[in-house]
C-alpha cells in the first residue's frame, strides 16, 4: 500500500510469479480491482517464491526472491535481495542468505540437507525482522518452518543462535499445519500485539495430497525474542 502515489490508480502494488516467465507487476486503486503493467515482467529471476515490501527507511521497494546456488555439492534454494525505486523495473537479485554447515547437521542419509525456501522480511521499529523458511530434506520427509533472523539494514542478516529453532512451531502430528508453514510478507501490529497470518499444510513438501489452511499466530508487541530471568 503506497497511499502517497499521485496517481490514485496506483496506490496498491502487487507482484505475481508465473512459471517460466518470472515476476510481473500490477497496480490498483483499492487493493481489489487490478490492472497489469503494460510491460508485465518486472523481474526475471528463476525462483518461484518471493516476498516484496515497501521500505520507507530506504525510500525504495525491497524484495527477497528465491535463487539457486551451488552449496557444498548441491544446487540449493537460497535467498536473494533486490531493490528498486521504480516498481516497474527491479535489479537482478544477489545472494544474501545460504545454508551453513550447522544447517546440515543431524541428517541420517548422505543426501540429507537444508535449503532456504524463502524469506519474509520487513522493516520493524529501528531495524529489520525476518522469518527464514527452513526446508529440511531427509529421506522423503520434507518439512518447512520459519526461524527468526534480524538485520540492521535489510541486507546483512543474523541468525538467532543457541539453539536454532522455529519461531513458529509446526503443529502436532495429524493437525492441519504439521508439515509446512509459510509466513506472510509482514505481520500486523494490532491491539498491542503482533498478528501473523500464515499458511499451513497437513503434510510435507513431497506429499501428493497435502490439505492447506490459513492460521493466525499472535505474540506480545516486540516479543519476537527475549531473556527469561531466574529467581
Summarize the entry for a quick read.
By secondary structure, this protein is mainly β. Helices cover 0% and strands 52% of the residues.
Q: What is the terminal-to-terminal distance?
A: 46 Å
SSE sequence, one letter per element = EEEEEEEEEEEEEEE
Query: Number of helix segments?
Result: 0
Please give the radius of gyration in angstroms: 18 Å
Helix content: under 10%
Low-confidence region ranges: none
How would you describe the overall organization of this protein?
By secondary structure, the protein is mainly β. Helices cover 0% and strands 52% of the residues. The protein contains no helices and 15 strands. The chain has strands at residues 12-18, 22-28, 35-43, 50-55, 60-71, 74-84, 94-97, 113-124, 127-138, 141-151, 157-159, 180-183, 188-190, 193-201, 212-220. The strands form 4 sheets. Strands 4-5-6-7 form a 4-stranded antiparallel β-sheet, with no helix packed on it. Strands 8-9-10-11 form a 4-stranded antiparallel β-sheet, with no helix packed on it. Strands 12, 13, 14 and 15 form a 4-stranded antiparallel β-sheet that branches. 29% of the residues are buried. The mean pLDDT is 93.
Amino acid at each position: 500500500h503506497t497511499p502517497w502515489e499521485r496517481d490514485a490508480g496506483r496506490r496498491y502494488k502487487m507482484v505475481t510469479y508465473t512459471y517460466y516467465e518470472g515476476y510481473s507487476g500490477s497496480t490498483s486503486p483499492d487493493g481489489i480491482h487490478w490492472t497489469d503493467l503494460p510491460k508485465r515482467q518486472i523481474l526475471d529471476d528463476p525462483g518461484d517464491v518471493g516476498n516484496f515490501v515497501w521500505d520507507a527507511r530506504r525510500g525504495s521497494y525491497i524484495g527477497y526472491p528465491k535463487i539457486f546456488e551451488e552449496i557444498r555439492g548441491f544446487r540449493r534454494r537460497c535467498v536473494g535481495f533486490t531493490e528498486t525505486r521504480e516498481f516497474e523495473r527491479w535489479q537482478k537479485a544477489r545472494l544474501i542468505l545460504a545454508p551453513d554447515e550447522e544447517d546440515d547437521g543431524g541428517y541420517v542419509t548422505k543426501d540429507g540437507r537444508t535449503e532456504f525456501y524463502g524469506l519474509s522480511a520487513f522493516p520493524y521499529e529501528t531495524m529489520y525482522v525476518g522469518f527464514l523458511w527452513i526446508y529440511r530434506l531427509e529421506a522423503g520427509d520434507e518439512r518447512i518452518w520459519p526461524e527468526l533472523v534480524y538485520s540492521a539494514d535489510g541486507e546483512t542478516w543474523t541468525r538467532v543462535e543457541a539453539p536454532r529453532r522455529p519461531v513458529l512451531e509446526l503443529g502436532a502430528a495429524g493437525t492441519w499445519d504439521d508439515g509446512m508453514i509459510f509466513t506472510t510478507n509482514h505481520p500486523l501490529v494490532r491491539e498491542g500485539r503482533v498478528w501473523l497470518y500464515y499458511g499451513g499444510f497437513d503434510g510435507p513438501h513431497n506429499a501428493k495430497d497435502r490439505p492447506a489452511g490459513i492460521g493466525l499466530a499472535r505474540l506480545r508487541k516486540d516479543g519476537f525474542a527475549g531473556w527469561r530471568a531466574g529467581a
